[in-house]
Amino acid sequence: MDEATLAQYQPVIGLEVHAQLLTHSKMYSADENEYGVAPNTNLSVITLGHPGTLPKVNRTAVEFAMKMGLATNCQIRRDNLFARKNYFYPDLPKGYQITQDKTPICYDGHVDIRVADGVKKIGVTRIHMEEDAGKSMHLAGETETLVDLNRAGVPLIEIVSEPDIRTGEEAYAYLTEIKKLVEYLGICDGNMEEGSLRCDANISVMKKGATQFGMKVEVKNMNSFRNVQRAIAYEIERQITIIEAGGEVDSETRGFDAASGTTNGQRSKETLNDYRYFPEPDLPPLVISDEWLHRVAAELPALPQQLYSRFVGELGLSDYDASVLIDQKEVALFFDDLSRLTPNAKAAANWVMGPVKSYLNERALTMADFPLDAAQLAGIIELIDAGKINYSVASKQLFPHFLEHPTANATGAAESLGLLQQADNGELAALVEQVLAGNPAKVAEYRAGKKSLTGMFMGELMKLTSGKADPKLANQLLRAALEG
């Protein structure tokens, strides 16, 4: 589709994110909440909805929902009711889902995302608690459908945004922020491939300047942020093409085919599903006291945007450095600890984003597997800043030694390896003269105006000192000798 036609329309996008909560037990029963076990083993008569069984609300799940609400600047509802959402599906053993209908625990919040021209506020309409359904499995070549009910009853929160998103890029940024929040809070692992974080996108288009939204289409079955972005891009063009041809967009649910990058119709939404919501008769109202709310709020960890503000505002890092560092919780917390042990925040950032992340990436490890603590890395930075060792030697020799001997002391290791820099003026001056004497033609070229040869001379000097010469002092002595 040509850019001129696309420019005439305004996409309107809202996202619904389901996050499975990392509780030990399910939402309304004591059944284990564990991924990857044998099918249909984490079950009891409560999950299966046998007659005479009674649900009980998981207190930890409630606190997790409260934490997410506080992290997204929501109001927290003090008097909560649960409701039954009735529908039939093979992997819904009770024939209904216990959820929240008109009384979501969190409401009227927002999430800030970073866009090209600054920060944009995306409204959060509501966050409500509910239970997950089971999982239907369709094996290749089989006509039967198998059902695994282990996931039935697993605690969920559904985070519903306002239709404030206008591009696939903004949707990606919003989802990235939501994922970071649930991971920093420790309430969800954010793994879309395993289904612990799932996203549906509501997409419509309207002519720019119009006041009424277009017909909304809901796209499901997206297992990565990139696929959400792809599905939105495809759906925007599909809807505009229909409108430009004089047709009308059908209100429907569509699935996303990652292989082709297209969406396909699943079921019509012209008439709303009648879920026959009614108050859950087996659960009393859930009252959140001031004391409970204040305690949960006090337990909140440092969140991504708070760390970003500290890294940029207090430590003077660039937007890029701070954004990279907060992308992963464990990396951000390690750097935060490191930055409190050294005054050189930029050097600390360079070490974490450079040698540390390279070590982890090369071995497919996480920050939790990193063998050194922040104090040991701070010791290496201190040696460099004191002029006792240069960065090249530190990163190529001392750092690898540390990784093999994680209990070593920075100064002691540098001494034992013979890495401490030579800072004796007389000794270095003699080596400078040796380098110049061995390269008379190059000296003549330098003095004739070819100043780029400085690097060559420095390289030769570093070879003679096995890289242990203080670069700053060596450079000064070398220039003085060349200009003399």
Give the proportion of residues in helices: 25-40%
- Class by SSE composition: alpha+beta
Question: What percent of residues are in strands?
Answer: 15-25%
Number of strands: 16
Strands of the widest sheet, in order across it, are 2-6-7-10-1-11-12-13-14
Cα(first) to Cα(last) distance is 68 Å
Major sheet description: 9 strands, mixed
Mean pLDDT: 91
Output the radius of gyration: 30 Å
The tally of helices reads 16
What general form does the structure show? elongated
Which residues sit in consecutive blocks of at least 5 with pLDDT less than 50? none
Characterization of the model:
- The protein has 16 helices and 16 strands.
- It is of the alpha+beta class and 484 residues long.
- The longest helix has 20 residues, at 225-244.
- Helix 8 crosses helix 10 (374-385), helix 13 (425-437) crosses helix 15 and helix 15 (454-464) packs across helix 16 (471-483).
- The chain is elongated and about 95 Å long.
Outline of the structure:
This protein is of the alpha+beta class and 484 residues long. It has helices spanning 3-7, 59-71, 168-185, 225-244, 290-298, 304-314, 319-326, 329-339, 345-362, 374-385, 391-404, 410-416, 425-437, 440-447, 454-464, 471-483, and strands spanning 9-20, 75-76, 79-80, 83-86, 96-99, 106-115, 118-131, 135-137, 146-148, 155-161, 197-207, 217-222, 252-257, 262-268, 278-279, 286-287. Helix 13 packs across helix 15 (454-464), helix 13 crosses helix 16 and helix 15 (454-464) crosses helix 16 (471-483).
